[in-house]
Design brief:
The protein is mostly helical. The protein has helices at residues 25-45, 55-75, 79-94, 99-106, 111-118, 128-135, 137-143, 153-165; strands at 7-10, 13-16. The protein is built from eight helices and two strands; from the N terminus they run ββαααααααα. A two-stranded antiparallel sheet has the order 1-2.
């Protein structure tokens, strides 16, 4: 489970590497099609793809990929896909530092928060900024209408429309 990042940039272009594991068709569509696919699209469109792997660009890449997942959650009509997307968003919440202590108080009536508070994400203990990028990052991008350096215009436009239609966007 610690091999969670399967995308990277090489001198030959975007690369996807997966560890063997059994996953459902819905997990395949969400994890590889939506999330990793967003990363690979960014790498393929970038003049300097290696920059998306580190620092602020990595934080932006993860925020964008999670925003794509949230968008899919809002529009999907497939129960199996919705379940995978919801589980993924809860897992992202579980990555936040100390969520087991403060989460249930912050959202006492939320079953999703209760689930996140009981999960463990040890690989993110030393990566709180990255953990927060997955959770808060999509909303930071939404405040900018998804306009950010390196984000393809069509991504920004499509996500902005979906988030506004769902009432998630500010302004």
């Amino acid at each position: 489970m610690l091999t969670w990042r399967g995308w990277l940039a090489t001198g030959c272009g975007p690369l996807f590497a997966a560890t063997p594991r059994l996953i459902t068709e819905a997990q395949l569509r969400v994890w590889l099609g939506l999330h990793v696919g967003t990363h690979l699209d960014l790498l393929a469109r970038s003049a300097a793809p290696v920059r998306w792997q580190f620092g602020r660009r990595l934080l932006a890449a993860e925020a964008l990929a999670t925003a794509v997942e949230i968008s899919a959650y809002l529009i999907s009509e497939r129960p199996d896909e919705i379940a995978v997307l919801r589980a993924g968003l809860i897992e992202r919440l579980s990555r936040l530092p100390g969520i087991g202590e403060w989460g249930p108080r912050a959202a006492a009536s939320s079953p999703s928060m209760a689930s996140a508070a009981t999960m463990s994400s040890p690989e993110f203990v030393a990566l709180p900024t990255l953990a927060c990028a997955y959770v808060a990052g999509p909303f930071v991008l939404a405040e900018k209408r998804f306009r950010s350096r390196g984000v393809p215009q069509e991504y920004a436009d499509a996500l902005d429309r979906r988030w506004r239609r769902a009432g998630l966007a500010h302004g």
